[in-house]
Structures are given as C-alpha cells and as structure tokens.
Amino acid sequence: MCTTDIPVTQTAARVQNPGPEARIVIQNEQAVPQITENQILVKLVVAGLCGEDKRRICLEFGAVHFIDYLAEDVSGEVTRLTSLGVHGVICTAGSIAAYQQAAQCVRNAGTIVCIGVNPQNLPTSPLDMVRRGLRLIGSAVGMLPEMQELFQLAARGEVKPLITLVPFDQIDAMAKKLEKGQVNGRIVMEMPQ
C-alpha cells in the first residue's frame, strides 16, 4: 500500500460502487491504529448505502450514522457530520460518480486514495486540486501481507463479514438478485457433493 498521510486521528471516508450507485462509508474523528508502516485500520461509524435493510445491517455492524444516498445529499450530510469534510477518502469504486462524491466529501488539504479506477478522466480538475490542496494517490491492494492482516483481524472478530450460504441450484436466482443490487454482503455457493 502507499503512504497516504491521512492523520492517525482522523475523519476518513471510503467510497464503494458494486453497481451504478456510489456508496460511502465515513470514519469520524477517532484514533486509527497503524497496522503496518503504510497501512491504516479504519473503524466504521457512518455508512452511506440505501434502503432500510442496508440501514439495519450497517447499524448492526457498528455504524453510528447512516446516509441513504438515494434520499439524502451525501456530501452535505458528510459536511454536517464532520464540519469541514473528511481528511481522506479511500475510493474503491471505479465510477465517475464515486470520485465526484469523494471530491465533494474530502476537506481542503485532504487525500483521495484511488483503488478502483475508471478509464475516463476524473471529475476534478488539476486546478481544483491545487486550489483545495488535495492529494490524489493510487494504491494497489490485495497482496499477501494485506490478506494475512485481514485474516488476523477476522480471527480477532474485528472484521465481521456478512455471508449468505446458498445451495448451488439457486445460482440463477442469486445472479438476478446481484444484478438488481438486492444482495447484502457476499454470497457463497455450496457445491453439490
């Protein structure tokens, strides 16, 4: 991972996009321990998804605030909750909408870490980045050290995956649910024996 210079005590956001909509998660002004020299562990306290089922799941998983991106102004609500915006956004989505939200949610002199990428130009200009003092950093993840740390976090109960186990004969029904954005978490298909 790259060095982000996001403060150890911070407000940070993560923008995700498994489909056409951007999703944002905010970590609000709390101490974030360093995992390794160049990695940070961020605790979820605000989630930006849509629908009451997503609200319930996020609150069960420890979110303090929930932002429904379909019903609320995400960047306005982020600003209301954080005053100046978040220190950093970790953008795992590859959509232009996700990067637009990232730029709107980050405070001046903030950092946008790019994990998901889009072949189109980013929706923020170099002039705006200079004017606001924004840093744009690329990051590649998924290497062995990150996976080992993730497994350690899961073993300690600090990462709680939401997994639905489904028989293999329901693969078509699950694919349709995935396409419609009706799946929470991950689906694991049971192979017939």
Automatic annotation (TrEMBL):
Query: What are the GO MF terms of this UniProt record?
Result: alcohol dehydrogenase (NAD+) activity; metal ion binding
Q: What InterPro entries does the record point to? A: ADH-like_C, NAD(P)-bd_dom_sf
Q: Which cofactor does it need?
A: Zn(2+)
The UniProt entry's GO CC annotations, sorted and at most eight, read: cytoplasm
- Domain Alcohol dehydrogenase-like C-terminal, by residue range, is 51-155
Keywords tagged on the record: Metal-binding, Oxidoreductase, Zinc
Protein name (record): Alcohol dehydrogenase-like C-terminal domain-containing protein
Traced from the root, the source organism's taxonomic lineage reads: Eukaryota, Fungi, Dikarya, Ascomycota, Pezizomycotina
